[in-house]
Amino acid sequence: MTRLLPRSLLGQVMLALAAALLIAQAISAVMLYRAASERREFALASAASFQLLAGQRRDLRGERRASGPPRPVTRRIPGAERGLRLPRRIRFTETAAVPLLPGESRNPAREATITQQLERQGLAVAEVVATERAVSADPLIAQSAADSPEWRERLPANRETLLVVGLRQAGSDDWQVARLAVPPPDRGPVRSLVLQTVILFLVLVGLLYFVLRRITRPLATLAERTRRFGSGAVPGEPLSPSGPDDVRRLIHAHNAMEARIGSMLDEKDVMLGAIGHDLKTPLAALRVRIESVEDEAARAKMAATIEDITRTLDEILSLARIGRSDAPPEMTELGALAASVIEEFEDMGQPVTLASGSRIAAAVHLTWLKRGLRNLVTNALRYAGTAHVSVLRENGMAVLRVEDDGPGIPEERIHDMLEPFTRGEASRNRETGGSGLGLTLARAVAEQHGGTLSLANRAQGGLRAEIRLPL
User: What topology in the membrane does the UniProt record assign (predicted)?
Assistant: First the structure.
């Protein structure tokens, strides 16, 4: 589910606005529908009460209900624009039987409303029944259809229902029955609400999109600039401030921070260069002087110490220089890159294997990535005697995997092994030639490319080291 949600600030705010607007309009639609239903129900109850009262008054004045062909209705049901017109002799009748057909259900809420309205007019109500039925199912209308060609033509196309209300007054056994056609629901408010929702959505979303783009565009540029600077890129020209004042102040602060960090990195490079020069020069002189030592064993031990110091110094300087290059990454086939590194070890007779795999191309800094892979292979050979290299594609990432059959690393120390000058147990001591910077340098190379370096013990024994690079 979370994969379907937008990740950007613009997308999430727009989605939240759309959801909030739709929920608010849905609540409004429900409230409008309920209000319209209540008004419609009250209008139907009022019309039925009026029809019962009007019919009773006509009876009291001695008026007889019309006979023969139906006549048009002179009063429409409140709220109806178009509806079935019932003749007066059908709208009000009197009968000795309850006006309910077999299987019909009553509507208690409607009966209570009509009872209240009739009692307010001074009628002594003994019982009220109310039900709805299909127009064609009513016996009186069916009889009219049999007698009138007009009704026979109109009924098959009529889809309205008929409200039948029966009133029995106190002290009487007869029922006074009112019939009225129930008008279809008015769809006008729903259409108006839908149109209102569309207009609100277009206006609000359009305005908010314009405002958010003005905010998110400079933020996206700032995020990309920060990502590139964090991966070790050399600082370029300061970003041009844009957007609202808050975003402009953020860009100004970032430019100042970037300039300060860039100046500190430049000072660090100068300092390390000077240290490297000042240390390598006396080390070279010392290497010449030990040739005068007559004890061969002592001379060899001194030479090994000088070489160890020189190698450690080179790794420190290399670690400091990672990412401090203006050269852009090159599109490289990673399988070929791994093969070139393996060839170096095969030429020295080292037991290194490369598993065949699919072609994977990525933009990389060729020299540094080869250095990182070379460090992992050297690490595997040093502590396990063998190395197995493979190049894979997993979840949109390029994976340079190096596995060995050695003793592995205790789980609680795996994270520490990526820190500078950290070595393992006795089997990984200084005498094996490790300086504690190989894995740190490989991790720096991976992070320079926006990737990661991970270490894990294999279930069958040994260590698995992976450089994962985004494609």
Answer: Multi-pass membrane protein
C-alpha closest to that of 163 among 144, 135, 185, 136: 135
The mean per-residue pLDDT over the stretch 24-32 comes to 84
User: How sure is the predictor about 127, in pLDDT bands with cuts at 50, 70 and 90?
Assistant: very high
The residue among 233, 416, 440 whose CA lies nearest residue 318 is: 440
Cα torsion 120, 124, 129, 135: sign: negative
How far is Cα 307 from Cα 433, in angstroms, rounded to an integer? 10
In this structure, the strands spanning 330-333 and 352-354 are: unpaired
Distance (Å, whole) CA 161 – CA 76: 15
* pLDDT > 60? residue 125: yes
Q: Which CATH superfamily is domain 327-470 in?
A: Histidine kinase-like ATPase, C-terminal domain (3.30.565.10)
**CA-to-CA distance for 317 and 1, rounded, in angstroms?**
47
What angle separates helix 438-448 from helix 366-384, to the nearest 10 degrees? 150
- Using CA atoms, how far apart are residues 69 and 147, in angstroms rounded to an integer? 8
Closest CA to 354 of 386, 306, 322, 393: 386
The two structure tokens encoding residue 387? 């190395």
**CATH code for 221-324?**
1.10.287.130
User: What pairs with residue 401 in β-bridges?
Assistant: 390, 466
Residue-wise pLDDT for 357-392, tens only, equals 778 898 888 888 888 898 899 888 888 888 999 999
* Sheet of strand 463-470: strand arrangement: 352-354, 387-394, 397-403, 463-470, 452-457
State the average pLDDT for the chain.
79
How far from chain centre, in Å, is Cα 7?
A: 6
Contacts of 71 (CB under 8 A, 6+ apart): 87, 88
User: Quick one: tokens of 91?
Assistant: 């709208």
Name residues whose C-beta falls within 8 Å of residue 198's C-beta, 6 or more positions apart in sequence.
Answer: none
Question: What are the tens digits of pLDDT across the range 313-362?
Answer: 776 776 666 655 556 778 889 989 999 989 988 888 888 999 877 788 98
Strand, coil or helix: 380:
helix
Residue ranges of domains in the chain: 13-186, 221-324, 327-470
**Of 68, 64, 72, which is closest to residue 92 (Cα–Cα)?**
64
First to last CA, the chain: 24
Contact 344, 366 (CB under 8 A): no
* 448, 322 contact by CB (below 8 A): yes
DSSP string, 293-359: ---HHHHHHHHHHHHHHHHHHHHHHHHHHTT---PPPEEEEHHHHHHHHHHHHHHTT--EEE-----
